[in-house]
Amino acid sequence: xxxxxxxxxxxxxxxxxxxxxxxxxxxxxxxxxxxxxxxxxxxxxxxxxxxxxxxxxxxxxxxxxxxxxxxxxxxxxxxxxxxxxxxxxxxxxxxxxxxxxxxxxxxxxxxxxxxxxxxxxxxxxxxxxxxxxxxxxxxxxxxxxxxxxxxxxxxxxxxxxxxxxxxxxxxxxxxxxxxxxxxxxxxxxxxxxxxxxxxxxxxxxxxxxxxxxxxxxxxxxxxxxxxxxxxxxxxxxxxxxxxxxxxxxxxxxxxxxxxxxxxxxxxxxxxxxxxxxxxxxxxxxxxxxxxxxxxxxxxxxxxxxxxxxxxxxxxxxxxxxxxxxxxxxxxxxxxxxxxxxxxxxxxxxxxxxxxxxxxxxxxxxxxxxxxxxxxxxxxxxxxxxxxxxxxxxxxxxxxxxxxxxxxxxxxxxxxxxxxxxxxxxxxxxxxxxxxxxxxxxxxxxxxxxxxxxxxxxxxxxxxxxxxxxxxxxxxxxxxxxxxxxxxxxxxxxxxxxxxxxxxxxxxxxxxxxxxxxxxxxxxxxxxxxxxxxxxxxxxxxxxxxxxxxxxxxxxxxxxxxxxxxxxxxxxxxxxxxxxxxxxxxxxxxxxxxxxxxxxxxxxxxxxxxxxxxxxxxxxxxxxxxxxxxxxxxxxxxxxxxxxxxxxxxxxxxxxxxxxxxxxxxxxxxxxxxxxxxxxxxxxxxxxxxxxxxxxxxxxxxxxxxxxxxxxxxxxxxx
Length: 718
What we know:
Blueprint: H1 33-59, H2 65-76, E1 80-82, E2 86-90, E3 95-105, E4 114-125, H3 127-131, E5 136-150, E6 174-175, E7 178-181, E8 183-189, E9 194-200, E10 205-206, E11 209-210, E12 214-222, E13 225-233, H4 236-240, E14 245-253, E15 256-264, E16 274-281, H5 284-289, E17 301-310, E18 313-323, E19 326-335, E20 341-353, H6 354-357, H7 365-371, E21 378-380, E22 383-385, H8 394-397, E23 400-412, E24 418-428, E25 431-441, E26 444-453, E27 460-471, H9 472-475, E28 489-499, H10 503-508, E29 511-518, E30 521-524, H11 525-532, H12 535-543, E31 550-563, E32 566-576, E33 579-588, E34 594-602, E35 614-619, E36 622-626, H13 630-645, H14 666-670, H15 704-712
Parallel strand pairs: 5-6, 5-7, 5-8, 20-23
Antiparallel strand pairs: 1-3, 2-3, 3-4, 4-5, 8-9, 9-12, 10-11, 12-13, 13-14, 14-15, 15-16, 16-17, 17-18, 18-19, 19-20, 21-22, 23-24, 24-25, 25-26, 26-27, 27-28, 28-29, 29-31, 30-31, 31-32, 32-33, 33-34, 34-35, 35-36
């Protein structure tokens, strides 16, 4: 039975649906707060830059004129002023700069004036290139500009380095296009004594192209020598397109013309330029003197080479040309730096004319060309002088250092058999060394080491000159010695020091020793007989047609001791199989006089012998041979007296040579020993050779007593 209290539910009723909920809303994406802040900052900066650009573009930045003057003056340490219009803005990304009446003062040490001034200057500067360190000016329009480039007296500071530190080399920005009018550049360098004033002609442009070449001209002085220059950039439009610019430059100075042609990477770029130099003139020393470099004088010359600049060095490569009648080739580098300019050269000459070699020891090349060998002789007080007296350019040696190698294949000269010259030259702060200085001479070799110390005053020179064994016939053939029949050799050494600023002064105040050694060999007999005046033997051989029969030389030494520029025989001793030749006297570098006598004593009996010395006197430039000496005249007088008093046969006794000459010990001779060390074959000291003493007056005169002693001892000794 149904529960009456139960609720009554309809039969078709369905269960109630469960309660429904609303679908969840989609969640929004949020950026990280730091990124949002960064983007807002960047946006603000870009907006600020845009506003700044817009303001600058609209106003042309004219309101920054005062700010520009203050900042530029503070940064450069110079007074910077703009008298007229001023513009500074981005156009659109490159910086556009315009100013009228701009002046930048010189540094205080320059004592006034402006380093730079321009009536009007307009420039388009590549912004990003400046940020990354490459300074590039796309367009430069300069009107009425003046630039004052100068160094101070000490060469430490310059006007274009905006600091009190050491002056830097001039480093111009790369200029793609330059339009200038009425621009002037001044340059001053007290150390080089160089001044230049250059004016740039007006350059016009139409439709972004230059209507003509950029031409310039100017003048100046280099170490007191005036010069003029003019030139042009012949293809400026190629530079605008990023190509190369053709340069033509001519410089005219005293007796010198230099033409520089080639291409520049940019209108103001020298680094890496491909140039050619053609220099000609009357004297090569003139061109080098512009840079303060001292080189020997030359006859007229012309040299060509490629020219490049790398850093502080100017390089002349493929050098070729002539000076006088000699050729020259090689390469040369001039480095402009500290502590001095450096000249580095490697040179080659196929043929050196003897006239062109003269200036290297102080002779005037034009005088040699006009007069030949007579051009080496001058006259002082009526006396001929041969030694050159051109002074060493000591002041010029202060300006530069040098390293030079020069090789000469052949010397063109009569009776001067020199070839294969090798010269190494070094100059370091006025210390000049010629080492090695070697050359072949008459199938022998001369090796030299010469040091010229110009750090001292007066100049001090050390000579060390050595001749290797050389065939005597070849060496002396120009002096009458024939090669045929002569097999002897000679070797020699000069070891001296001298004081003086010229070759003449240096040798005139020299000390040391000169020695010529003759080892065993043979010599054509006619020369020996003429020197010893052995009349009987000479005539006998002449009639027997044996003039070319050689005379055997055991050993010989011709040596001089030099004191105060006067050389005394110490000793002259030549030992042959039949004779002993002795010499006395000497010569003077001071007044270039000669006073020598040679006498041959026979080792064998000779009926007719003058036994009289042959005298050599006069001067270096005018020597004289005296074969009729007082001794020979005395013997002739004695013979005449005997002939009158006794018989004609008795007169011959005055010319008899008993043949008692002492043979020499060749050991001391071949070692070049002094007279005091000479011995005969029995080991006894020789008493018939000089002792190397000096006692002659400056003018070469002797007292009456000295002349008497001279006659007694042949010609005496100094």
